[in-house]
Each structure stands twice: as structure tokens, then as C-alpha cells.
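Changelog-linked ticket: uridine-5'-diphosphate example.
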Amino acid sequence: MKQKILITGGAGFIGSHLSERLLDEGHDVLCVDNYFTGTKANIAHLMENQQFELMRHDVTFPLYVEVDQIYNMACPASPVHYQYDPVQTTKTSVHGAINMLGLAKRVKARIFQASTSEVYGDPAVHPQTENYFGNVNPVGPRSCYDEGKRCAETLFFDYYREHQLRIKVARIFNTYGPRMHPNDGRVVSNFIVQALQNENITIYGDGSQTRSFCYVDNLIDGLIKLMESGDDFTGPVNIGNPNEFTIKELAEKIIEMTQSTSKLIYKSLPENDPVRRQPDITLAKKILGWEPSIELEEGLTHTINYFSDIPSSQDLDTKPERIEKYFQKSVSESA
Ligand code: NAD
Ligand code: UDP
């Protein structure tokens, strides 16, 4: 049935793919964004669609609209950007959740929260299952993001218990694909941009830390399946690809695929950078019938093609001051 769907952070990387998919399925989409990391370019191709509406708004302020479903995606996801204004990052997760939950309560909407594998911190359990409570530093440079997202989960479950809200919480693991911002700062986009320009590939630490990368199309399938699942299933549920790679392996693969002459260079490992990360997706398979199908090489091919094709004329607000701050505070030349 056609739904009126609000997507906060809809102009971001994942939000723009979600907007596109939900429009394709015939829904009305209201995209709300303050463009902190998202861009109008990400959703420019949707503007002609009569069922798409765009609103500039910061979710730390209340929002009064009438909708059937809410996907709460608003929050910078890259360490470079979420550490630039850490107080605003926590406010976005916490005040944003309170405002969106208040809205869901008033209009009786089903509400989805984009939580994260970061709630597990630097995990002592591997792979990570949903019943693991995590190992998070509450006072480090990543805490504004990790603790903000943990508190948002708490709020979602308190609204569920206290007000019987229909909530859906996904813990999203590292996701990549077209429309990541070239200066987003996350590893896949950094390495591809560096490789395409034959520049040094910046490995933080010795590159032995691992991540498990999910292609964005697979992720979107999982998020929608979760939203459409029965009211009795709230999550939290891990959504990610369990195929685990070291960061060095990722760099070597991208160099090979782009036939780049880039060399690997080593920088210091940012504080509290998780050593290993891999989702256990047993729950998602069992309840949602979801599992990823796109292997790293295939997903990287699409992503490399995207970055190769970005017109140099495209107005990319690259926000160099954020990258500079991150390098001053977190990443320095390796000893
Ligand atoms: P992104 O930075 O591309 O998108 C975030 C969007 O939220 C941007 O459009 C940004 O402008 C917007 N935003 C930020 N603060 C806002 C505010 N106060 N009010 C309104 N809009 C605001 O990141 P993404 O990768 O698309 O991530 C989307 C969501 O998924 C985030 O909540 C993120 O924490 C979560 N997530 C992403 C990943 C990943 O690997 N991409 C992993 C785990 C969780
Ligand atoms: N990383 C790296 N070089 C870069 C960017 C990131 O070696 O240019 C590392 C980073 O230290 C981390 C991993 O890649 O170990 C994933 O980083 P990202 O910021 O993409 O995501 P997160 O750490 O939040 O999982």
C-alpha cells in the first residue's frame, strides 16, 4: 500500500538510495536534510518526481508533518565529519531521536532508526551478535557518535515500552557505494579517489584492522525488509556483509582494480579505532530472510565507475577545514 514516508538525512549517501528505492516502489517521500554532509546533487535526479519533496531542516529541532513511516537516517557517519562538531553530532542522534519519536507518537507512524556497528565499539566478541553489549569508550573522540547512537537506541526502546511505538532498529555495518562523497573520509571512498588519481593510499595503522563491507543496494533491501516486518519484531538487528577484509587487503584490491600506480603509505591509527568488525547476521537471515548477495569486487566495480564518472565541474563542497581538523587531532604521520 502506498505510504507517506519521511526520510531524515535523505540527501546523504544511504538516504538518497533509500529515497530512490521507495519512490520506485510508488511511495510518497519527504526528504529532510540540513546538508551537513549530504548534497542536493545526491537527489537532483529525484526532483522531477511529483511524489518527492525536499525540506531543509535540522532534526535537532521539532518537525511537524503528517506521515505513515519515518526512516531516521540523519547523522554524519564518517569520523572526519562527526568529529568536526562533536556536540552537534550527539545532539543530532539524541535530540533528533527525541524529535522523531515524538513525531511518530503523535502521528502513529512506524519508525526506523539507523543505528550502527559502532554501538559495539572495539568489540571483545567476534563476530558481533546483537546480544553483545559492546566495548565503548564514553569519553574518546568517537564517543559523540557511538554514545549518541547508543542513547538513541535507548530512547527508541523506551518509547516502545512506554508508548507502544512501532519501532525498527538496524545496526548498520560499513556500507559503501556510489554517492559517497569524494571527501567523505571513509576508507572505501578515500582509497578509490586516491587510486584513481595515482596518489598515495593512506593506511591508518599497519592496515591489519578489519572491516566487513556491504554494498549499498543490499543494505537498502535489508532496511526495507526490516521496516515491512511484523510489528512484534523491533530489532536491534545487524545489517551488513559478513565478508571480512583487512584494510591493507582493501587497498591492494582497489589498486589492482583501478590499475593504479599508487603506493601505500602508513599514518598513525586514530584513537579507539576498532581492531576487528564483522556482523553475525543469523537474526536478519532468520527473521527477515535477508542476506547480502553482492561481493566486494562487484560492489567496488560499481563504486569505482561512479568515482571515475563524477564530472569535475560538479560543485562539490569539500569542506577542507573538517579534514584538516581530523588530521591535526586524530591522524598524524606514522612514527
Ligand atoms: P551521510 O553523512 O552521507 O548522510 C547523513 C545525512 O544526514 C546527510 O545528508 C546529512 O546532511 C544529514 N544530517 C546530518 N545531521 C543532520 C541534522 N542535524 N539534521 C538533518 N540532517 C542531518 O552518511 P550515511 O553513510 O548515508 O549514513 C546514514 C545513516 O546511516 C547515519 O545515521 C549513519 O550513522 C548510519 N550508518 C551508516 C553507516 C555506513 O557505513 N554508511 C554505517 C552505520 C550506520
Ligand atoms: N582508514 C584508513 N585510511 C583512510 C581512511 C580510513 O586506513 O584513508 C581506516 C580506519 O582507520 C579504519 C578503517 O579504515 O580502521 C575504516 O574506516 P572508516 O572511517 O571507513 O570507518 P569506521 O572506522 O567508522 O569503521
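Closing comment: Example verified and attached. DSSP finds ten helices and 13 strands in the chain. The first helix runs from residue 13 to 24.
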